[in-house]
Amino acid sequence: PFATIFMWTPTKDGHPMMIQIWGLTSRNTGDRLMLRAIVEHFAGSGHRLCADYKIAPYAERAQLGLYQRVRTDKYPLLEGVASRLLTSRTRENYGLVLQHEVDAVLDASGFAYSDQWRSGRGRRTAALYGHWKHQGKKIVLLPQALGPLKVSENRLYFLGIADAADLVFARDKMSYDHADSLDFDKTKLRQAPDFTNLLEPLPAERDPRRVCIIPNLRMIDKTDRRTGACYPDLMKKCALVVKDLGLRPVVLVHEENDVDFAELIASALPFEIEVAKDLAPLETKAYIGASRFAV
Predict the structure, then answer these.
(1) CB–CB of 22/106 below 8 Å?
(2) What angle, 0 to 180 degrees and rounded to 10, lies between the N-to-C axes of helices 225-244 and 259-267?
(3) Closest Cα to residue 281, out of 51, 44, 60, 59?
(4) Cα angle value 196/249/212 (rounded, 5°)
């Protein structure tokens, strides 16, 4: 999907494009892997990448060479004020970018457009994308899970997002079908897989006895009551079965929000079990890849 961004002409003065990465957070390992995959892909292309403060801690943004997008979305009038206070030379010297300087937006949300979430985010994103489209920006929804979108408000806001986008990539067949059932220009709808496999994993010594148990709090707060109530016990039983097979279960934290949940599962087991946490994104990828399997 990345190649599609080069189908567009750079800015009218012949300079490379300023591309904004949107929709990621620093709390999710998958998001941080997507961020690195995007940065690696565009390295050496001449195009420049920017993001706001929510996408990663400052030190990580600086290490990746990202420009800092000055966020004025909630108060559009501040864009003009910021433009006058921060001259183009000052912005270039400090790596700052105003919204009107962005040429294209890559939405790497992963899983944001679904009835599992409240409609507020969809409403805000639809309004932003409509505004950005009016400014002439190109918008691409990178491969992500989509739907279901049966709630009328969520469906309406996603239609606004899809109408403003130039390309919409569904990550799997079910997501594609959810999007395909809606009324928008289907020539922009494509299916493409997760792109974090483009990243080269770190070298890691294989451990044929290690099995990663990866709990996810979203299986409790984003499912029905019965499923949520059963899920902690299911994770515990998985660890017990792995142990009975003569293998070594390890509880692996994949998201920052799952730390307490992971430790709760570990404490409920009748044996000592390692809780692997605080791993960097590429370390997590290597850790899973070097294990026997993951649950």
Answers:
(1) yes
(2) 60
(3) 60
(4) 5
96-97, strands of its sheet edge to edge: 96-97, 67-69, 48-51, 18-22, 104-107, 138-144, 167-170, 189-191
Query: Taking the mean position of all CA atoms in its chain, how far away is CA 220?
Result: 20
Cα–Cα distance between 126 and 128 in angstroms, integer?
Answer: 6
Residue 19 CB partners (closer than 8 Å, separation 6+): 5, 42, 47, 48, 49, 50, 102, 103, 104, 105, 106
Which residue is listed with tokens 């997501």?
Answer: 175
Cis upstream peptide for 148 (omega within 30°): yes
Can you give the pTM of this predicted structure? 0.86
Contacts of 67 (CB under 8 A, 6+ apart): 18, 48, 49, 50, 51, 95, 96, 97
pLDDT tens digits for range 90-147: 999 999 999 889 999 999 998 999 998 888 889 999 999 999 999 999 999 999 999 9
Residue type, 54: K
Q: Order of strands, edge to edge, in the sheet holding 293-294? A: 274-276, 248-252, 210-213, 293-294
Residue with tokens 């509880």: 251
CA 25 and chain centroid, separation: 7
The tokens of 228 are what?
A: 């949520």
